[in-house]
């Protein structure tokens, strides 16, 4: 039995201790295991813990539940991603309220060069379904390395997943329950197909009851995993608008497709655009423009690099990006063998020289 995962799961199961407080606990204790070896008196003194939470941490029932969950994930070959792991999604790690643990199943890369979340109403119209298909077929036509994220719900969500499967685009469904079930059950067949090129992600353990509040909580993962959130259709109120608001709070791009003034399920999109909560897009060309993807071809590398007076490190960065296309700052740091702080200063200077473009999620490409 994996003791490290046992402690990680136990940390995520403590009642009243959310992701922010859980990270503070680990920071004070020094490690996840050390959190549970702290004395009751020591725990009480940690900011935000107090007597009630200290008793919860020392409750042995936490480990009984964690052991049960560990057996479940080992039996069904579910991957566990902890926020300190190198393979924890980089974009999500930058979100202040990101979960400390993620459960995933399938064949996915949560750090793909481009990730978009596509969300919308559960009452999708023919217009909304058509918009989804045209957008995702555009990804396929342009041969983009892009991952489509949504929530496996009725309407726009399931349409996005189905179209991604149709056009062989990897797609991930973020669910609001454990990976021991699929809700709604009607989408189980689609979920199974997604495992081959994408999969399922959740921060909830098995046995979690279906609860409306959980769907709002999972929306932060849908927004946090992506460079951009795209609202296809939405009424004046709905989960898609909540996801868009969360994405904005993470300083991620938000886009919305407009609809006619009298269309019930376009009112939310129209309002987002009107109040500058989202940029208006009408198709993939607009998305390319806003995200800076339209010029991301190797043959279009800016000629200024031929004449610029580059340092040794700058030359290495240019060569890396010419070869790879786009890289995260920590990837560049690792390739150059320099601290992230030094890499950040280097990349900023190269931006000033008009050599690089900074993309969402601390990713860079040649201009």
UniProtKB/TrEMBL annotation:
Annotated Helix-hairpin-helix DNA-binding motif class domain residues: 9-28, 41-60
Domain of life where this protein originates: Bacteria
The UniProt transmembrane annotation reads: none
* Stored InterPro entries: DprA, DprA_WH, DrpA_SLOG, Hlx-hairpin-Hlx_DNA-bd_motif, RuvA_2-like
User: Which GO BP terms, alphabetically?
Assistant: DNA repair; DNA-mediated transformation
* Pfam families xrefs: DNA_processg_A, HHH_5, WHD_DprA
Cite the GO molecular-function annotations of the record. Answer: DNA binding
Give the similarity note: Belongs to the DprA/Smf family.
State what protein this is by name. Answer: DNA processing protein
Per the UniProt record, the source organism is Tangfeifania diversioriginum
């Amino acid at each position: 039995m994996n003791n490290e995962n046992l402690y990680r799961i136990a940390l995520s199961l403590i009642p009243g201790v959310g992701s922010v407080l859980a990270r503070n606990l680990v920071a004070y204790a020094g490690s996840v295991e050390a959190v549970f070896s702290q004395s009751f008196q020591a725990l009480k003194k940690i900011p935000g813990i107090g007597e009630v939470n200290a008793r919860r941490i020392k409750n042995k029932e936490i480990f009984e539940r964690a052991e049960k969950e560990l057996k479940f994930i080992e039996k069904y070959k579910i991957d566990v991603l902890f926020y300190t792991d190198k393979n924890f999604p980089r974009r999500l790690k930058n979100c202040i309220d990101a979960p400390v643990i993620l459960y995933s199943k399938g064949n996915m890369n949560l750090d793909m060069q481009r990730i978009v979340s596509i969300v919308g109403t559960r009452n999708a119209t023919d217009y909304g379904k058509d918009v989804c298909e045209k957008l995702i077929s555009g990804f396929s036509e342009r041969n983009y390395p892009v991952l489509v994220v949504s929530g496996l719900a009725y309407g726009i969500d399931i349409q996005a997943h189905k179209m991604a499967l149709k056009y062989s685009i990897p797609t991930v469904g973020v669910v609001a329950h454990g990976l021991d079930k699929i809700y709604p059950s009607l989408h189980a067949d689609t979920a199974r197909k997604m495992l081959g090129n994408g999969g399922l992600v959740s921060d909830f353990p098995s046995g979690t009851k279906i609860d409306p509040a959980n769907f709002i909580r999972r929306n932060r993962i849908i927004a946090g995993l992506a460079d951009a959130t795209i609202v296809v259709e939405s009424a004046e109120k709905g989960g898609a608008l909540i996801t868009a608001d969360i994405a904005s709070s993470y300083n991620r791009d938000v886009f919305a497709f407009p609809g006619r003034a009298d269309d019930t399920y376009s009112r939310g999109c129209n309002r987002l655009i009107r109040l500058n909560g989202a940029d208006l897009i009408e198709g993939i060309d607009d998305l390319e423009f806003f995200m800076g993807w339209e010029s991301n071809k190797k043959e279009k590398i800016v000629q200024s690099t031929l004449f610029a007076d580059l340092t040794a490190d700058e030359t290495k960065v240019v060569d890396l990006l010419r070869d790879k296309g786009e890289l995260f700052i920590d990837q560049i740091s690792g390739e150059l063998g320099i601290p992230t702080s030094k890499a950040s200063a280097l990349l900023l200077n190269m931006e000033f020289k008009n050599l690089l473009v900074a993309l969402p999620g601390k990713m860079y490409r040649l201009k």
